[in-house]
Automatic annotation (TrEMBL):
Pfam families: His_kinase (PF06580). It comes from Emticicia soli. This is Sensor histidine kinase. The lineage of its organism: Bacteria, Pseudomonadati, Bacteroidota, Cytophagia, Cytophagales. The keyword Disulfide bond does not apply. It comes from the Bacteria. It is an enzyme of class 2 (transferase). GO terms for molecular function: protein histidine kinase activity. The chain crosses the membrane at residues 7-25, 45-64, 76-97, 132-153. Its EC number is 2.7.13.3. Residues 173-250 form the Signal transduction histidine kinase internal region domain. Keywords: Kinase, Membrane, Transferase, Transmembrane, Transmembrane helix.
């Protein structure tokens, strides 16, 4: 389709050149003597007049009749236009035939016409031989058929592009909504953590504010892009983990590790934070020991994120809907941004809740 669009002008020119010269190439007298005959110039002039008229009909049907009448189901007006144009084409061909092609019959005195009636050409409204009339009709029908098909293909292509554009806009809107849903939820929990530190009059309150400013800077200035460097996303996770660790009691432990060729890739922003946030929200206990494990690794073009946290009976929601919109939003974003290129396994067994996410980064352009 791109090739046809790029060279459409040349394709039209070549097509019309073939259309114009075809009658000369297929003529039964297509030798050099045919082009030297005295009536060849008249034949050429009449043929060019009719051909250029058909070309005009082609583009008139392509740009007006089919798009504005046939496609819009105004069939009666479309047919009436075609009948009127066909009659005009026949009249034009009659004119060119009688002016340039009609054979010159000998002049006969009026008193002798009765004896020569049988020698005159048969009368007719168009006064054209049947083969010539048949060729004009076929040429007209082919021009109308070709232009109508081209107009239909063009209209279908436009509709397809519009649907694709609408789908892209819908996807972009959905992703924007999902990001807006994640950001306030994340900010709400973080402010609660800082409020807790402030109430404890902790010396870490100032450091937590600095960490929060870094998180907000990332969310405001970086997360607006479709893709961000994976290193920045990891730094964002690390800032969040450090901010959460400021209020952890001694019986809680958080282990965050990452490795691999993380410098080469970009990724959808704020994609991993709901998993980590969920682990802190439901994987910590004020009295019991708990350990949260977060591991991110890139091997070649495959990214794996593993998050594991303990499950406490009074700390984890019974229904998935009660766990917030974070994980559900990530699942939607993965389906939109990484279709058929991700695998997400969520397991709640043996007293531990784990998330194992694998992304294939083939279609993501490496960061140079």
């Amino acid at each position: 389709m791109n090739f046809i669009r790029r060279y459409s002008v040349w394709l039209h020119i070549i097509g019309w050149i073939i259309f114009i010269i075809m009658p000369f190439l297929t003529s039964p007298n297509n030798n050099f003597n045919f082009f030297r005959q005295p009536g060849f110039s008249s034949f050429l002039l009449s043929q060019l007049i009719n051909d250029f008229m058909l070309i005009a009909v082609f583009y008139f049907n392509l740009s007006f009749l089919t798009p504005n009448l046939f496609i819009k189901k105004n069939t009666l007006a479309f047919v009436l236009y075609l009948v009127a144009i066909f009659v005009f084409i026949l009249l034009l061909n009659k004119f060119t035939f009688e002016t340039f092609r009609r054979p010159n019959f000998p002049r006969i005195p009026p008193q002798d016409l009765s004896g020569f009636r049988h020698r005159m050409p048969p009368p007719g409204p168009m006064f054209m031989p049947f083969p010539f009339l048949f060729r004009v009709t076929i040429s007209f029908l082919l021009v109308i058929l070709a232009s109508s098909l081209l107009a239909l293909i063009k209209e279908r292509s436009i509709q397809k592009e519009e649907k694709q554009q609408m789908a892209l806009e819908k996807t972009a809107a959905e992703l924007a909504v999902l990001k807006l849903q994640i950001s306030p939820h994340f900010l709400f929990n973080t402010l609660n953590n800082i409020r807790w530190l402030a109430r404890q009059k902790s010396d870490m309150t100032e450091d937590s504010v600095v960490k929060l400013s870094q998180l907000l800077r990332y969310m405001i200035y970086q997360a607006k892009y479709d893709k961000v460097p994976l290193v920045q996303e990891i730094n964002h996770l690390q800032n969040y983990v450090e901010l959460q660790k400021m209020r952890l009691p001694e019986n809680n432990e958080v282990k965050f590790t990452y490795g691999g060729n993380i410098e080469q890739w970009s990724i959808e922003p704020l994609l991993f934070i709901p998993f980590v946030e969920n682990a802190f929200k439901y994987g910590l206990h004020s009295q019991k020991e708990s350990k949260i494990e977060i591991n991110l690794k890139v091997d070649g073009n495959t990214l794996n994120l593993f998050v594991r946290n303990p499950v406490f009976a009074n700390n984890f929601p019974v229904n998935a809907e009660d766990s917030g919109i974070g994980i559900q939003n990530v699942e939607k974003r993965l389906a939109l941004h990484y279709p058929d290129r991700h695998e997400l396994n969520i397991v709640n067994i043996g007293g531990y809740f784990s998330i194992d996410l694998t992304l294939i980064l083939d279609d993501v352009e490496p960061k140079k």
